[in-house]
Design goal:
Largest sheet: 4 strands, parallel
Low-confidence stretches: none
Shape: globular
CATH class of the largest domain: Alpha Beta
Order of helices and strands: HEHEHEHHEHHEEHEH
Bound molecules: iron/sulfur cluster
Number of domains: 2
Mean pLDDT: 91
Oligomer: single chain
CATH superfamily of the largest domain: Aldolase class I
CATH architecture of the largest domain: Alpha-Beta Barrel
Number of strands: 7
Helix content: 25-40%
Strand order of the largest sheet: 1-2-3-4
Length: 258
Amino acid sequence: MTEAALLQTRKEKFRDPDWTASGERRAQVRLQALRMLWINTGSLCNIECRNCYIESSPENDRLAYVNRGEVSAFLDEIEREALPTREIGFTGGEPFMNPDILAMLGDALARGHFALVLTNAMQPMQRPRIKSGLLGLREAHGARLVIRVSLDHYGKALHEEERGPDTYDKTVEGIDWLCVSPKAGTNIVQRRGDELKLVYPQTGAGPERYAGQDFRNFFLQPMDNPDRAANTAAATRYCLEHPQWRLSLQTHKLIGIR
Ligand code: SF4
């Protein structure tokens, strides 16, 4: 179907705000309060996923970058009208490509909101300017800054089927930077932060190696392999003997979601 034909079909399907094309009343949810405001930062993205809801790509600039002044106007309105808006969400495209993203996040956080960013955690987020800006925001505003990373599958093949070649490793690198989950034999560059999660047991990466680093929370997660039960018992025992560490469980697996 051509783009023009597609637009025509959509126009016919959504011509009446109250009734569907087949004559049924449309479902409605009454607006009670603006609890969360979503900002679209622009449609450009460093990659081009097969099913992207907004058809983002490195070329798609149909939705221009929103800027700090435009977002401030909305934040002013929330304040002026005393709206109960708790959270400001930022999505794209890839939000970390927007030149004003750090300033916009800082403004939302400084006004007391939670700020949520949806990202692929790839190169745009991993630039030194962005990383040091995020560390500064985390330092100033703590857990009110939340980063949500899109991973289509825990395995490389299915993730890249959706997101394209060479997308998996870079995203995992970004997740590692955000979460700090050390693996044996790797060079750890991030030595301070909010949370360190260590999969246990790992030869050459025992908890004692990381216990002195500057993290607020230390989590031990039993390794998920055929010895999971024994690993869970060992991790639990270690946490009981070393209260600096807390047990981290992959609850989705416990309830049968793999
Ligand atoms: S990373 Fe997100 S915004 Fe970018 S193309 Fe994929 S789904 Fe779209």
